[in-house]
User: Fold these one by one.
Assistant:
Number 1:
Amino acid sequence: MFLNNLWFVLIALLWIGYFVLEGFDFGVGALLRIVGRKEKGRRVLINTIGPVWDGNEVWLLTAGGATFAAFPEWYASMFSGFYLALLVILVCLIGRGVAFEYRGKGSTDTWRARWDWTILISSWALPVLWGVAFGNVVRGVPLDADHEYVGTFLDLLNPFALLMGVTVLLLVLTHGGVYLSLKTTAQVRDRAQAFTLRLAPFAIAAMAVAVVWQYLIRGPVLSLAVGLAAVVALAVAWALTRVSRDGWAFVLSALSTGLLVTSWFLAIYPNVLPSTLDPAWSLTIENAASTPYTLTLMSWVAIAFVPLVVGYQAWSYWVFRKRISVRHIPDSPGATAQESPQTSSR
Amino acid sequence: MDALTLARWQFGITTVYHFLFVPISIGMAFLIALLETAWVRTRNPIYLRQVKFWGKLFLINFAIGVVTGILQEFQFGMNWSSYSRFVGDVFGAPLAMEALLAFFLESTFLGLWIFGWDKLSPKLHCACMWLLSIGTMLSAFFIMAANSFMQNPVGVTVNVERGRAEMVDIWAVLTQPLQLWAYAHVIAGALISGSAIFVGIAAWAMKNRDRSERHAETARVLRPSLRLGLVAMLIGSVLTIVSGDLLAKVMTDVQPMKMAAAEALWDTTDGASFSVITIGTLDGRSEVWSIRVPGVLSFMATESFSGTVEGINDVQARYEQQYGPGDYRPIVPVTYWMFRLMMGAGFAMLALSIVGLWLTRKGRLPQQKWVWWLAVGGIAGPIVGHSAGWIFTEMGRQPWSVLGLYKTADSVSPTVSAGSVLTSLIVFTALYGVLAVVEVGLMLKYAKAGPPSEEEALASIERRPPRSWGDGSDGTSGLDGSDDDDADERPMAFAY
């Protein structure tokens, strides 16, 4: 059972890593037109995440692979049960992935605008969809005795899950706004900061309601405590943004994201996917797991390589630690001229 | 159509499509790493210009390979949940290792390579491309291990009570002979893919070289790439053919039905001939007319011209005894023709590389247009070869998803409706169609643009020290730096 617990924790950590890291790059994508406004401003935004978004996304792929390896029943029930939701998620991930790479490869404004919309729509949709998905994991889904999902797509759109979707969206927008305040300069930074300050109260309120509701559905008091800590952390991030302590604000918004995800996993433990039909039909860390042989093997692989991965990924963040301003952005090929006062420094 | 048929179509379409881009990425990453190493060692800007040129094309291609790979990982759970439950204990491990050991390496060092021109020393920058190249090859290793397990399940016991395969020996899974030869075959094939892009696009850019000064300059810069591509294509073709031959021998042992079907060999034969072309009856169950080379099939399968090769009918009878009544034959015409298409593509690339090396020997460049167009057409060779190879190897395994252990018909998700699968099949096929048009358009655009000028290439590697979050002028430090006065206003060497 130690190994089952270990892998429950490791998979939770992978999801935490995913939401914390891709969370801010979703936020940046979603704020493309609000904070970026004009062409050069938008490119500042995209370049703040350009070198790192792909690595952030691998946390998701690793979480998926690790779930397949450690809890195959969980992987099978969840991925087949959330079929149409995952279809939309995949379309968004595919569109978003090529959009970053292809946006700057064309030479017309129309071309760039199309990819901007791809980035924008997918960056709004993905946090909502992930929030809804995890809302359903926490709430439980109709699993039959064979651990097969027997509900419909519409069952996934229940009020609690939708609230969780909205919460994650607001959180990600705040987290992204804080990241942009940290990584940009001048007017782009001012807009990011102003937006964050306006939005954060809504995110804090939504999260507060969501974690209390989550506690009423399931979970130990510890899950509630961690959820409330996430709310507090976000409030502190908001306060720090007010006084322009950008670095610390980012640490706190990242912490808040990590704590919210932690509260989900604490709420469902020792289940991995609770059944709403009969608690006995729930998938647990025991009945969903691989054999001790596989879990042991994967543990050694994880112990050997996770520190290495975290190390070089951290290094890449260090290499690209510099703030980016519109002055650093070279001209787009074939751009219609006149970039207005935005480009001036303050 | 039922959910099973649709799920099979979806898997086929998305996998073949994914694998149009992956081998090109693997091959190009390796060749670009070689060129960048040449740049670091010689400091001759001609190499840097080539790296920059191929780098752009590589990134366009790599992006699609990455995003279509995400779908591959999710698809097992979505469409094939029963399969996932059955094999998760053994199949999930290589997938998780692939993500942890390969995907992180690729994505992180890709980011560093794209944006790091002016932030890393040339050596470190070059090392990033090598790590990226290693990442692409590691990724292929783990995915091939997972696939080889499906072709020949080793290192497992079946737990009847839990209804699943349980891993007992990871080493057997990762290093069974089928896996090692299949991996070698795929990597060698990927080298052909990358080199065909090098040769084809260099040829396309050079074919008009006498028209203007710019064309002459393009030809001068890309000539080393053309030669490198041709040499790599020769090596890749030879290795593909050798590894393919050795793989076929292992497959004859562990998947006799697939190899018999590949030859449309109905009855067990001593000294079996290799058929170059066979016309069969409409139901594909017997032969009407063929051109044959005596003894070659036996040699391919057993290393002896008179060796015994088991026929489809005999394997079928044996399997019925072993696994109970049922049809254990794949669709013979599909396996037969895909096998020929795959081999034909391999030999065509070998011929192309030899002709190309001869025509460009000692500084020569051919004058005839059609030679250049032939090189451009060569890009299609490995694409056809890889697609046919995958269709052959996956269709040849039917009706099994895990040979001898688990049937494809049992693998599909029981609660996912045909309508859902049809929806995703239509969505992904349409999306992939759009991506293909965009990709080809961009490849042409950047191939046409040609390599950057020497000044442009050198300007991008001028180093500048990064300024940190906290060294703003407002007196704060560390994480609390609120602004950046930004003395350095040079544009980034690379920006999206």
Number 2:
Amino acid sequence: MHIPDGILPATVCLGGYATAGAATWYALRKISRQGNPREGIPKASLLTAAFLVASWIHIPIPPASVHLVLNGLLGAVLGYFAMPAILIGLFFQAVLFQHGGLTTLGVNATVMGVTALLAHQIFQLRKVIGAGNRTVLAVCGFIAGAGGIALATVAVFTILFSTIPAHLDVQAERASIYALTLAHVPLAIIEGIFTAMLVLFLQKVKPDVLEG
Amino acid sequence: MINRIKLFVSILAVSLLVWPAAAFAHGVDINYQTKTAVEIEAKYDTGQPVSEGQVTVYAPDNPAKPWTTGKADENGRYIFTPDPAKPGTWDVQVRLAGHGGMVPVPVGVDSDVAAAGTGYTTMQIVLMSACVIWGLVGTALYFARRKN
């Protein structure tokens, strides 16, 4: 899911930084217009820590091994704070663990951050469909959690598929990209269930966390 | 004189014995020279090998154009023989499904053996992670306290 250094051409990396910058600016602008922007910082900070650790939790899905991403979960719970949280989390992952890279930080932040913002919009639908209904909350949580990573996987698939260097065995690389993409389908279901469980738990113990 | 003729005949006989042996070799001239090969082994951070990953080797004089390409075996191993006439740092990239990395390999220059990855020990990574997590938790606690 994290695209490392040396895989993408420089133009794509620069484009990634441009889109990540625009998305972060948009998210911060939305946050600044909220009643009290400071209120969202504690949960954003804690979930940034969770996002950082999540990349170490590997799930063996033959023939590959995938790790938790949690971008959909962050989008559902944090709203617009998800974008800066993911950007900071990705920076630390690149520097500390070599998950992703600094040249591809913009691309990765766009892929995971923008899809997290989309997951937030999906989760907000619960207010339209049935506010206060736990089933609706769980379903929207599942779709947000699973949809966030599913959209990110499609985005990564598209980027990788369209930038395979000519000197490689293109067919072999495409086949391996297909396999990796399919390996993320079970992960999307796992993260969807996890997000649904978390939002149900938060709704029960601290419902104001989900507001925003 | 007789001795000279005997000697000539003996030399001729030896020549006749040796010459056909050379003819059976079909003129093949085999030489050899020893060269230093480089073996790389690519693994994911989970320890799994990058099985059949695609390998691209870049020579020091042209880091933009691949010098050779190949494929690692099922154990993520790949062997290539760099051109000794091109001393310097050779870059080897291993890639599979958009995942991979690059390792610098010093050839013909005094340098330590290079290794890809973070260069940190597991304990260092754990400690750094703990520091970052503690910073994030501290930030959360700080802003939560101000709210009250």
